[in-house]
Amino acid sequence: MIRVLLADDQTLVRAGFRTILDGEPGLRVVAEAADGLEAVRLAGAERPDVVLMDVRMPHLDGLEATRRIAADPGLSRTRIVILTTFELDEYVYGALRAGASGFLLKDAEPAELIHCVRVVARGEALLAPSVTRRLIAEVASRAVPPQPPPEAAALTAREAEIADLIAAGLSNEEIAGRLGISHATAKTHAGRILGKLGLRDRAQLVVWAYESGRVRPGWLG
């Protein structure tokens, strides 16, 4: 059972999401929060698998609530998806840095919502191509002469290769095809990479790889 926390100050939005999620086998909404502080408190109490987090909420905004949840060692398995009314450029980079695993438009179709929850619950990132492009552009605009990240020394040559491919946006299946390995092997490598680097998920790996200069825009072709 995938346990979900809804954090949005609009009652109707929460009600609509609850109806969709509770009607789907294997998904259950365990709590609702109307502001950021309540979201942080309920996340600690309920330890959900996924938090659907609005950005603009009273008392504490969604980005700071995301940062606090992501920083809690007891919630290391909780994944956070930022809810937006439209793709807001200024939130993309900050939300991923804060610990979000992806983004979802509030007017998304029910099937998209269900897919989103299942994807991030598996520990994968949910980044639409348009979001990824803007993330890369934002990181590139902040670029400084890259320094070899010290954490990278813990990776084997194959793990470093796979880390770069993940950062470039390839799925485990695509990585398996490119490198001639099985899907299970690619998934195992991905898990080990995240563990060695101390990262929550693939979204965090994207930020790490670009900030460290390991991956640059357009390098893969």
Task: Set down the secondary structure blueprint.
Layout: E1 2-7, H1 11-22, E2 27-33, H2 36-46, E3 50-54, H3 62-71, E4 79-84, H4 89-98, E5 102-105, H5 110-121, H6 129-141, H7 157-167, H8 172-179, H9 183-197, H10 202-211
Parallel strand pairs: 1-2, 1-3, 3-4, 4-5
Helix pairs in contact: 2-3, 3-4, 7-9, 7-10, 8-9
Short description:
Residues 148-213 form the HTH luxR-type domain. Pfam families: GerE, Response_reg. The chain has 221 residues and is of the alpha/beta class.
Description:
The chain has 221 residues and is α/β, with parallel strands linked by helices. The chain folds into 2 domains: 2-136, Response regulator (Rossmann fold, 3-Layer(aba) Sandwich); 145-211, Arc Repressor Mutant, subunit A, CATH 1.10.10.10. Helix content is 51%, strand content 13%. The chain is built from 10 helices and 5 strands; from the N terminus they run E-H-E-H-E-H-E-H-E-H-H-H-H-H-H. It has helices at 11-22, 36-46, 62-71, 89-98, 110-121, 129-141, 157-167, 172-179, 183-197, 202-211, and strands at residues 2-7, 27-33, 50-54, 79-84, 102-105. A 5-stranded parallel sheet has the order 2-1-3-4-5, with helices on both faces. The radius of gyration is 17 Å and the shape is globular.
